[in-house]
Design goal:
single chain, alpha/beta, Rossmann fold, binds nicotinamide-adenine-dinucleotide
C-alpha cells in the first residue's frame, strides 16, 4: 500500500482487551482478518496482546484508558477514525464485578463505580462507534452482558443491575439503528474461567466445582467459546440477527 492509502480490511475494536474474554476476542477478530483497536487499563498486558495481534499480519492500535473516562473513550474512537477511516465491528467487553455483599450494607460508591464502568462507559463507547459506522451504512456491535443480566444472583445487586441494563441498552439501540444496518447484540456468558472468576473463587477447587455445577454441562466455559460467539454475531453470517441477548452458558438459564 502507498502512503496515505487506507486498507480495506474490516476494522474491529475491543475494550478490556488485555486479558480474559477481551483478549481472546481481539485475537479472534485478528485471525478472521480484521485490523484491531484495543483498549484497557493494564498497559503492559495490552502491549503484549498487541504484539500477538501484529504477529497475525494485521494492524493494531492500542489505547490505555479507563472506559469510565468519557473524554478518553471519545479520543480513542477518534484515533480509530483517523487511522482507518472506518469501524466495522465493536465488542464492548470492559467490565468489573465490583464488591459482593448484602444489599442493605452495600457501599453506594461500589454501586456507582460498577454502573459507571459497566453501563455509562459502554454507552459512551456505543455513541462513538455508531458515529464511525453511520457514514458507511453498516456495522455490528456486540456488548458483553452476563447471565447476571438475565437472572438474579444474591449479593450482586450492582453487577446484576449493570448487566440487565446492558441487555436493555442492546435492545433499544438495535431497534433504533436497524434500518441503518447497524446490528447490536449482547452475549451473556455463564461462568468463564478468567482472572475475574479467579478473583471470586480464589481458585479454591471446591468453590470452582460449585461454580461449574451451576451449568448443566457441569463445567465453566472457556474464553475461546465466548470469543467465537462474539465473532459470529459480528460477521455477515449473522446479518439478520439484531437485538438479541445470547447466553453462552452451557445451558444455565435454560433450566
Ligand atoms: N468471566 C466470567 O465468568 C464472566 C461472566 C459473565 C460476564 N462477564 C463479563 O465479561 C467481560 C470480561 O470479563 P473477564 O472475565 O474477561 O474479566 P477480566 O477481569 O479477566 O478481564 C477484564 C479486562 O478488562 C479490563 N478492565 C477492567 N476494568 C476496566 C476499565 N474500567 N476500563 C478499561 N478496561 C478495564 C481489565 O484490565 C481486564 O484486562 C466483563 O464485562 C464481565 O462482566 C464475565
Amino acid at each position: 500500500m502507498t502512503a496515505g492509502q487506507k486498507s480495506n480490511k474490516p476494522v474491529a475494536l475491543v475494550t478490556g482487551a488485555a486479558a480474559g474474554i477481551g483478549k481472546a476476542t481481539a485475537l479472534a477478530y485478528a485471525k478472521s482478518g480484521c485490523h484491531v483497536a484495543i483498549s484497557d487499563v493494564q498497559a503492559d498486558k495490552l502491549t503484549a496482546v498487541a504484539k500477538e495481534i501484529e504477529a497475525l499480519g494485521v494492524e493494531v492500535l492500542t489505547d490505555v484508558h479507563d472506559v469510565g473516562d468519557e473524554a478518553a473513550v471519545r479520543k480513542f474512537h477518534q484515533r480509530i477514525g483517523a487511522k482507518w477511516g472506518r469501524l466495522d465491528y465493536a465488542c464492548n467487553n470492559a467490565g468489573i464485578e465490583g464488591a459482593q455483599g448484602a444489599t442493605h450494607e452495600m457501599s453506594m460508591d461500589n454501586y456507582d463505580r460498577v454502573m459507571n464502568i459497566n453501563v455509562r462507559g459502554l454507552v459512551v463507547c456505543m455513541q462513538e462507534q455508531i458515529k464511525l459506522m453511520l457514514p458507511h451504512g453498516q456495522g455490528a456491535i456486540v456488548n458483553i452482558a452476563s447471565i447476571a443480566g438475565l437472572v438474579g444472583f444474591p449479593e450482586m445487586v450492582a453487577y446484576c443491575a449493570s448487566k440487565g441494563a446492558v441487555v436493555q441498552i442492546t435492545r433499544s439501540v438495535a431497534v433504533e439503528y436497524a434500518e441503518r444496518n447497524i446490528r447490536v447484540n449482547a452475549i451473556c456468558p455463564g461462568v468463564i474461567k478468567t482472572d475475574m472468576v479467579d478473583r471470586v473463587t480464589k481458585q479454591d477447587p471446591e468453590t470452582e466445582a460449585a461454580y461449574a455445577a451451576f451449568h448443566p454441562m457441569n463445567r465453566m466455559g472457556t474464553v475461546a467459546e465466548v470469543a467465537d460467539a462474539i465473532v459470529f454475531l459480528s460477521l455477515p453470517q449473522a446479518s439478520f440477527i439484531t437485538g438479541q441477548a445470547l447466553a453462552v452458558d452451557g445451558g444455565m438459564v435454560a433450566r
